[in-house]
Write a structure and sequence with these properties.
The chain is of the alpha/beta class. The chain is globular. About 35% of the residues lie in helices and about 20% in strands. Helix 1 runs parallel beside helix 11 and helix 5 packs across helix 7. The protein has 12 helices and 10 strands. It has a single domain, classed as Inosine-uridine Nucleoside N-ribohydrolase, Chain A (Alpha-Beta Complex), CATH 3.90.245. The strands form 2 sheets. An 8-stranded mixed beta sheet has the order 3-2-1-4-5-6-10-9.
Length: about 300
Amino acid sequence: MNRYKIIETDPGTDVDDALAILYGLRSPDVEIVSLNMVYGNVDLRAKITKKILELDNKNIPVYVGESTPIRTVKPIFHFGREGEGLLTKDEIEKKESPNISSIDFLVEEINKNPGKYDLISIGAMTNIAKAFLLDKTLETKINHLYIMGGSISYPKRFDIENYRGPNKVEHNVACDVEAADILIRSKCPKTLLTYDITSRANIQLEDLSKLKELGEPEESIFNMIEIWNQYLRQKGNPNMDYCSMHDPLTLMVSIKPDLIKTKKVPIYVDNEGYTRIGGNDYLNLAVDLDYPKFKEDFLNTILSKRV
C-alpha cells in the first residue's frame, strides 16, 4: 500500500468529493500530497476545499486546474448551490489568488519523485490527460492510477461474463471524453471503478448525521449533504435517504484493495463517451464490492476522533 496520494477532484456539486477528502484527512494510512481542482468553476471548488482544510487546521496544497474539457459530450453542469452550507456569501464571491496550475504541479512533482505517488481521479480527467500530453514520460512515473468513471452495464446488473454493452454515459467520462480515453490508454498501472460498482457504496443519511456531533468541518460537510440530497429529491428522487460514495470508495481502494474484486479486462471509451469492453488496453476493472467491509471502514474512519 502506497500512502502518498495526489487527488484530482471536483468538489461542490455531488457531496461525495468532500467526503472523500474527509476520509483522506481522517485515515492514518493516507498522506494527501495535493488536492487538484478540475472541471467547471474550479475557483469555487478550490474555495470549498480550502475551507474544509482551514476548518480542520490542515495545510495541504490546493491547485486550480482546467475548467474547460478537451472534448465533452454534455454541457458543464453545476446545480447552483455549490458551497452552500460551508462558505459564506462573501467567501463564495471572493477572488482566488492564483498559484501554480494543477498540470504544472503534476509534471513537476511526479518527475521529481518518479514512482512515489498514486493518482486518484474522482472527477473529470482533464488535468491528468493534459499533463500526460505535455510530458509523454509522465505516465510511466506513476505508482498507480485509480479512476472513478465509466459504466459497463448501467445501472441494474453488472455481469461482464454476459456483457451486452452500456446504455448510458457516466458523468466523469462525459465531462471530458477525450481525457478519459487518454487515461484509459495510458501505460501506468491502473484500476477502474465504474458506476456499476461505486453505486453499490451507499451510506444512509441516518449514519451520516453523526457527523453533526463532531464539530467542524464535519458539521458543514453534513450541511452540504443535506443540500445535495434536497436537490436530488426535488429532481425526482423523493425518497432519497442515502449518499453514494463513488469518490470515497475510489480513494479507499487505493489503501485497502481487498474491498473490491478486480479482473483484467480490455477497456476503451468510444467517441460518444460510452465505456466499452474491448480493444487492447487492459486494466484492473472492479467487478465486485465487499459492502459490509466498506461500510464499516468508511464510517469508522470519517467518524473517528482527530489524532
